[in-house]
Design goal:
The protein is of the alpha+beta class and 106 residues long. It folds into 2 domains: 6-38, no CATH class; 40-105, Arc Repressor Mutant, subunit A. It is built from 4 helices and 5 strands. The strands form 2 sheets. It has a 3-stranded antiparallel sheet. It has a two-stranded antiparallel ribbon with strand order 4-5. α2 (62-69) packs across α3. The chain is elongated, with a radius of gyration of 18 Å.
Length: 106
């Protein structure tokens, strides 16, 4: 059996506020677990993909990352800027990004 696939549950109605919850199914117990807000979980996956890629490859440009992840370059560029502002990434004079902890270890 493969790894659990995330799913979403959309809740809406007259007496409740509309929301989308991220769920994960546990095949062993046959239960669903709420793992957070669906939109936040999706963003987290995209961010994690960028961080994982930089961990594997070291230093990369936004164009290289976008090509590798098959995402729009401008979206990747904005995400990289946010990650840098949060202190997770560093960039050099040529616009290449690396993980902050990799820069510190260099």
């Amino acid at each position: 059996m493969g790894s659990p696939q995330p799913s979403a549950l959309k809740a809406y109605g007259r007496d409740i506020e509309e929301e989308a919850l991220a769920l994960t199914f546990n095949a062993t117990t046959c239960t669903w677990t709420v793992t957070g807000n669906a939109a936040e979980r999706q963003v987290s996956k995209k961010r994690q993909a960028v961080l994982d890629l930089l961990e594997q490859n070291g230093t990369m440009t936004p164009t290289e990352i976008a090509r590798e992840l098959e995402k729009p370059r401008e979206a990747i560029k904005k995400m990289l800027q946010r990650l840098k502002k949060e202190g997770l990434l560093a960039s050099d004079q040529q616009g290449r990004y690396t993980l902050q902890n990799q820069k510190d270890n260099a």
